[in-house]
Each structure stands twice: as C-alpha cells, then as structure tokens.
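User: When convenient, might I ask for sequence and structure tokens for a protein?

AI:
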Amino acid sequence: MKEVGFLQTAQQRRSGPAIECSSVSVSFLDQTTQTERKILDRLDMQVPAGSVVALLGQSGCGKSTLLRSIAGLQPIQTGQITINDQTIDATRKSMSFVFQEPALLPWRTAIENVCLPLELQSDLKRVEIQNRSIQLLASVGFTPADHDKLPPQLSGGMKMRASLARALVTEPTLLLLDEPFAALDDMLRWRLNEMLLDLCRELSRTVLFVTHNIAEAIFLSQKIAVMHRGQIAQWIDNPLPLARTSELRSTTEFAQFYGQISKCLAQAGSL
C-alpha cells in the first residue's frame, strides 16, 4: 500500500479558520411531547483551513445536524456560521456534501451523475465537463467500462466512489462527509478510507467528516472534535504521523490513541 500524507497550499496554511461556528443553536419540536428538543446548544467551533477534522460522539449528540447546518441544509435558530470569513450562501458553490447514502440519480449513468454538478453550476463546455468527470472517476478506481453503468448495476462501494467523485468534480475547497462508509463492510471501508486520504493529499481540501467509528476517525483525521449534547466537549490533536499506511492500524501507537479517544467518549457520556 502506498504511503498517504497531507499536502497544504500556502493559502490553506493561513492562520484563519475555514469554518467558524459561534453560539450556534438548533432545536426540533418533539411531536410526541410537543416540547422543544435542543440538538445544538450555543456551539462554538473553528476548523483550521486545510485540515482534516473528525466529528465523533454518541448517536444523537448533534454531529449530523452540525454538518448539515454548515452546509446550509439545516436552518439555525441562533448564532452564526462562516466559511472562509463569508456567509454560507456566499460560499455554497465552494463546498460539497457526501451523504450516508450515495443518492445517485438512478436514470443517469455513473459518469452522468458525476457530470451533473458541473452541468448545473458551471459554464464549462461539455467536453471539459466530460474530461474532468473521467479524471475524477479514474481517481476513485472506476474503469472506462464502468462509466456507462446505471446505479443499480454498481456495487455499494462503487456507488459511494461515484458519489465522492461527484462531490469533488466542482473542485470544492470544503468537503463535508456524513458517515459515507458506514454501510460498507470493514475491508471495503478501509480501502475507501485510504482512497479518501490519497485524494486529500492530492487535492488539498479542508475536510470535516462525521463518524461513529473511532478507528476511522483516528486514521483519517488530524484533529478530532468529541461532541456531547450539542456542544464540542473536547478537541484532541491526532499525534500519529501525517503519513498514513494501512500498517498504522496495527501499531501500539494507534492502539494507545484509540484507548485515549474511547476514554474521552466515555467521560463525555457520563456528564
């Protein structure tokens, strides 16, 4: 397995955050009790530009709601979210979101699904859109023979690869991922983890992703934000080398950090 690392451009190494959340609150109405349930509670967060950050926490702690709020898919009741010092509306075209399900259009082929964001958002010529989409599909392991397959003809892993290619085809500066590999078997999940790190290295994006999987959070991230009851309970810097290989997961250092994260989650859950 080739070594995977992180590269950052000069712009991405600037001191300012790519994402800044200030006192963000989101509440939902509980239809059973007709009471308001607070999902995000005056949350503050800064994600450094060019970094890969994992949001980790128990179910219901607000991870996915926070991600959707940053993407502009979930209205917030209070607070402010800025992306590179701009409003979400001003930066919407510079971010991409990868959902838990691939959400490919079943009547469009794999390459047509990847082309779609550029068809909707750009003035590029058709041949330029095709060329960029072909390049992205190749980077996620598609062969030319797979391009014209419809989603029902693709495996679960291939669907998720196409979804990731579709998210990257617009060349976003911010990539948001909501447990995109959760439904896959462990072997495929790790292969796609390694592929994602490779893409991060090549494309130098700011990445914020949600996961329940501690090992995945450790392998992918530079920083881990532990969430609890709608807030960031703790920030943890990942001490492992930025150059990551599959062998890293069997090291003592990986196991020790896994134990540290598990302890932090347990402590947060007891608050």
Residues 137 and 143 are 8 Å apart (CA to CA). The domain at 17-101+173-269 is CATH 3.40.50.300 (Rossmann fold). The mean pLDDT is 87.
